[in-house]
Amino acid sequence: MKILVVFTGGTIGSSKIDGVISPDKSNSYVLLDMYSKIDNSVDFTAVQPYNMLSENVCGNNLVSLCECIKASEFNCFDGVIVTHGTDTLQYASSFLSYVFGLCRTPIVVVSANYPLSDSRSNGLDNFCAAADFIKSGNGKGVFVAYKNSGDIAKIHRASRVLPHSPYSDDVYSIFDEVYGEIRSSGFIKNDSYIEQADKTKFSFDNCADECSDVMYIRPYVNMKYPEITDDTKAILLEGYHSGTLNTSGKDLKDFCRIADKKNVPVFLTGACKGFYYESKTHFDELKINVLPPASPIAMYVKLWLLKRENINDVYLPCGGDFTE
Fold first, then answer.
1. Residue 96, exposed/middle/buried by CB under 10 A (0-12, 13-18, 19+)?
2. CA 72, CA 223: separation in Å to the nearest integer?
3. Is 179 within 8 Å of 156 (Cβ atoms)?
């Protein structure tokens, strides 16, 4: 079994000194030593495109990550494990999911809630889960392996991971539909999990643009909408938990009118079929395009990677992102 390990920093690659958690390049390889004491049958090859806390990750880092995996001839391995911080785990995993699609060699992103030296850390558990999943040979594309507090390790489709709840490091998939889980007997696939074949194909040329030209807006009561600049490619609105927005107020109407005048498409994520509240009946007249059920962060990343002329390809499945 040959596995490529890509270290990028994050808590899983950090040390705590004088109460401060900081990236520690030498600490990354401690993870491999810890795993070898459990299983020494895996041949690891390690690379490190950068070493930083994930909250500091920018577009150029995500591009470097993709280029590093590609340059490492990842298809020559049985699988790839990417270590990453939890703060931007969803952005990196979605980015990888769209760039690599449902690739033959599985790529699994892992992180940790505490540094590896902390007895509370799930970093080794997550790494072991990723390795067990790769050994099972049961998946194509990009995944996230993560063990929530008091639970067993789950394997998530990377493009379906939801944003973290405040003050929580637990990881969940949309509708809580995971790809599978790791038990004592090994990887067990979720029989109810369904995904569509890729219809949108991204290339490495798509990830060359390191700066996002997508405006991502989350709602709040009495909100004021930002100015739409001339270089805005698309606008992604995230609805309240019911997929609703304040469609009775003047601000949203003016905002959508300006977007239409500037020929900037407006998309809404977080809405499902059914639950047709009165507020939702105004979406069509405001020219708000409702996306299929998906992770909001994944939809932001997908719009970011799409070229302007292909922006409506956001509706087409890629990387296993849509749940229906």
1. buried
2. 46
3. yes
The pLDDT of residue 324 is: 66
Cα–Cα distance measured from residue 297 to residue 87, given in angstroms and rounded to the nearest whole number: 12
Claim to verify: residue 167 and residue 233 sit in the same structural domain:
no
Q: Indicate whether 199 belongs to any domain.
A: no
Sequence-ordered list of residues with C-beta below 8 angstroms from that of 87, at least 6 positions apart, any chain: 53, 54, 55, 164
Q: Is residue 27 part of a domain?
A: yes
**Averaged over 129-151, what is the pLDDT?**
97
- pLDDT > 70: percent of the chain: 97
Q: Are 78 and 183 in a shared domain?
A: yes
For residues 171 and 217, membership in a common domain is answered with no
The reply to whether 229 and 127 lie within a common domain is no
Task: Count how many domains the chain has.
Answer: 2
Domain that holds residue 134: 2-189
| CB contact set of 54 (below 8 Å; sequence gap of 6+) | 8, 9, 10, 84, 85, 86, 87, 88, 89, 92, 111
